[in-house]
Amino acid sequence: MAQNIYDQDEFFNGYRRLSRQVTGLDSAPEWPALRAMLPPMPGARVIDLGCGFGWFCRWAREHGAAAVLGIDLSEKMLAQAQASPHDPAIRYQRGDLETLSLAPASCDLVYSSLTFHYIAALERLWAQVYAALIPGGSLVFSVEHPIYTAPSHPGWVVDEQGIKTWPVDSYQVEGPRSRTWYVPGVIKQHRLISTYVNLLICLGFTLTRLEEWGPTDAQINATPELAEEKERPMFFLVGAKKI
Amino acid sequence: MAQNIYDQDEFFNGYRRLSRQVTGLDSAPEWPALRAMLPPMPGARVIDLGCGFGWFCRWAREHGAAAVLGIDLSEKMLAQAQASPHDPAIRYQRGDLETLSLAPASCDLVYSSLTFHYIAALERLWAQVYAALIPGGSLVFSVEHPIYTAPSHPGWVVDEQGIKTWPVDSYQVEGPRSRTWYVPGVIKQHRLISTYVNLLICLGFTLTRLEEWGPTDAQINATPELAEEKERPMFFLVGAKKI
User: Fold this and answer.
1) Between A166, A194, A231, which is nearest B211 by CB?
2) B84/A contact by beta carbon, under 8 A
3) How does pLDDT run across A44-99, given as a tens digit for each residue?
4) Whole-angstrom Cα distance, residue A145 to residue B42?
């Protein structure tokens, strides 16, 4: 079973105050790049893996999706998602992505934001995703970038010339990384970009776009603390299709 | 016109002593991974962009290629390539990859090892490559990995815990990097993995495999100094097809 940090009070009380959780998708700086990878929403049947508070589920419906299924492991997150005004075309379901089964040929888009890097059995899950998509269907997702997940001691270092750097080590050593994020012992899975991409190709997906996300100049002007994101990518975004 | 460091005596006298230049492909630790991406050689018409001393051209012929065209900017390299025993099916040609034209639908494989990160007009060159390939043809290449090319001051740093790290900065800032490699002022082009991949996709290529190369345990046992290559990837390998 997947680690469920979200239902620990200490974690949840920090996490729910993140701006992207309080005010939604537009507070996530990588959202415009991820949105640009999405297929047309009108009429689409959508699954959101790791839906959290349901921000994307509601966005998909507002943009014409016919039916949305949001899946998450966290009871607290799903409770908050279900506290939104009722929409009969959005269904929330508790599920463990390590063991989840999806109905074959049941949807046009599988979306997932910053969730897959917590999943150990990713090949199993993506095989379910591939089967769940109809031909022509899309998988669009973001994960933490491997440059961000690799280091044994992640963090910025200012060198003797005053340059802010992100020291990388252990890049080729894939597998779990234990991090402190509100609470100690949060387990993430470090994978190479090539591992993500080759896994998709081996399952039959065709890659349509990659982004190693960095802020635009306009985003840095509006939010100067984003400037450090130009030094190393934090997010890795992927668009893929079942042809 | 592309920078031609190879014909400077000082550079050439260092470069030609690299083990991969002296004893060929098997001295390049990433060669087994690159070779695994190649299509069958028997009968293939092959172009090698940045052929250097012609090691790959000769390998392709030894493995059944019908005709091989090796292109390089360096007169010294081509002179050494042509000093090998004559093979009428291998043709060496001096050419500048910044402005090269290739005959349309003329080949089955375009190969390039550690050359494209020197090219500024890469989109123009790859459009030529796409047109030169027949449907079903392959592009297989290696470049320096963006983690390797990004830093403003590249090099290993041992932190206070004794951990060897590769500090990354300027990752999102694509463009030229001036390096010292035998001589100062060697210009490389830093590009993101996503830039390489999206350019291929936009030109019509289908991605078949990526590798962020790292040494195998057997390679480290045989050559212990390769161990540091597990900390950060130096090479990025790509297989793509014209469907």
Assistant:
1) A194
2) no
3) 999 999 999 999 999 999 999 999 999 999 999 999 999 999 999 999 999 999 99
4) 40
What helix, strand, coil percent values describe chain B, rounded to 5?
30, 30, 40
Contact A210 B198 (CB under 8 A): yes
Nearest to residue B238, comparing CAs of B204, B213, B203?
B213
Q: Are B167 and A166 within 8 A, CB to CB?
A: yes
Sheet holding B107-113, edge to edge: B90-94, B67-72, B45-49, B107-113, B133-144, B235-241, B206-213
What φ, ψ does residue A210 adopt, rounded to 5°? -120, 150
Cα–Cα nearest to B52, from B28, B82, B26: B82
Query: How far is it, in rounded angstroms, from Cα B66 to Cα B41?
Result: 8
Whether residue A211 lies within 8 A of chain B, CB to CB, comes out as yes
Give chain B positions within 8 Å (CB) of A173.
230
CA dihedral over A49, A51, A57, A60, signed as positive or negative = negative
Average pLDDT on B117-139 reads: 98
pTM: 0.96
Q: Which residue of A lies nearest to B147 if distances are taken between CA atoms?
A: A147
Q: How far is CA A238 from the centre of its chain?
A: 10
Question: Does A208 contact chain B (CB < 8 Å)?
Answer: yes
Do residue B193 and residue A198 have CB atoms under 8 angstroms apart?
no
The letter for the amino acid at B56 is F
- Looking at the DSSP bridge assignments, the partners of residue A47 are A69, A110
Rounded Cα distance between B237 and B243, Å, is 19
Cβ A193 vs Cβ A208: under 8 Å:
no
Residue carrying the six token digits 């959005």:
A90
On whether any CB of chain A is under 8 Å from the CB of B201, the answer is yes
Alpha carbons B170 and A166: distance in angstroms, whole number: 10
Q: Chain B contact for A163, CB < 8 A?
A: yes
Q: By three-state DSSP, how is residue A101 classified?
A: coil
CB contact under 8 A, A153 and B164: no
Q: What are the tokens at A10? A: 């200490």
pLDDT tens-digit series, residues A141-191? 999 999 999 999 999 999 888 999 999 999 999 999 999 999 999 999 999
Instruction: Report CB contact under 8 Å: B168, A197.
Output: no
* Residue B152 sits at the chain A interface (C-beta within 8 Å): yes
Compute the distance between CA of residue B33 and CA of residue A211 in angstroms, rounded to an integer.
24
Whose tokens are 């392709």? That residue is: B60
Query: Do A166 and B166 make contact, defined as CB atoms within 8 angstroms?
Result: no
Q: Does B214 touch chain A (CB under 8 A)?
A: yes
Structure tokens at A88: 């009969």
User: What gap in Å lies between CA B20 and CA B16, rounded to an integer?
Assistant: 9
User: A166 with A158: CB under 8 angstroms?
Assistant: no
Query: Is B211's Cβ below 8 Å from some Cβ in A?
Result: yes
